[in-house]
Amino acid sequence: MRSIAKAVRALFASPASPVSGSAWAPVEQEVRSLLGQGKTARALRVAQRALAEAPGTPGRAYLHGLALDGVGRHEEALEAYRAELAINPGHAEARARCEQLTAALTRPAATASPTTNQRSWHTSLPRPTLLGLQKSLHNYQYRGVPLLKNPFDLALYPILLWKLQSRTVIEIGSKSGGSALWLGDLLAGRWARRCARSSCSACPGPGW
């Protein structure tokens, strides 16, 4: 995430380079001005309108990419920069933005997880940090119920559930029940979104 944020900050740090001879320079200036003021949603609407009016005009896809970057839609911004380069290969800024986002969005190569015998139980986290995590674990609540999960659990469990596509979780040792409540809400929310489609075939049947 830091690399993406760094790339986005770089988008607006460099000076503007409007398209030479462009009749729509005021539109470009408006989008850049709105982005500089932090009015990213408004800038995106202006850029989208300009692109819809003349999608093949050099510079408009790039401007659309800047606005998409401004609202955090980085993957779509990357596609916009690529679209600009497809019709305007000489656009230096579009190429630079494309390279920055490609590097920022590329996932590192997956490595095999160590086995139990290979894994060390030592951690590089300082002891005060570990004690702080332990203290927060015993003082955290979810919907008013104690939830014994540390920040790493809260980050990893949703990823695990998404990868496994689980419909049921059996928790052994639920104590106050906060974890069961949280996991149940995670599953209910995910399947509710999937089943919002009229043709959904993922559910066991009506009324499940």
CATH H-tier superfamily of the largest domain: Tetratricopeptide repeat domain
Give the helix level as a range of percent: 55-70%
What integer is the average pLDDT? 80
Regarding quaternary structure, what we see is: single chain
SSE topology string: HHHHHHHEEHH
Strands, total number? 2
Judging from the principal axes of the Cα atoms, what is the shape? elongated
Portion in beta strands: under 5%
Could you explain how this protein is built, in words?
The protein is mainly α and 208 residues long. It contains nine helices and two strands. It has helices at residues 2-13, 25-36, 40-53, 60-70, 74-87, 92-105, 127-137, 151-164, 178-194, and strands spanning 141-142, 145-146. Strands 1-2 form a two-stranded antiparallel sheet. A hairpin with a 2-residue loop joins strand 1 and strand 2. Helix 2 packs antiparallel against helix 3, helix 2 runs parallel beside helix 4 and helix 4 packs antiparallel against helix 5. It starts with a helix and ends in a 14-residue tail after the last helix.
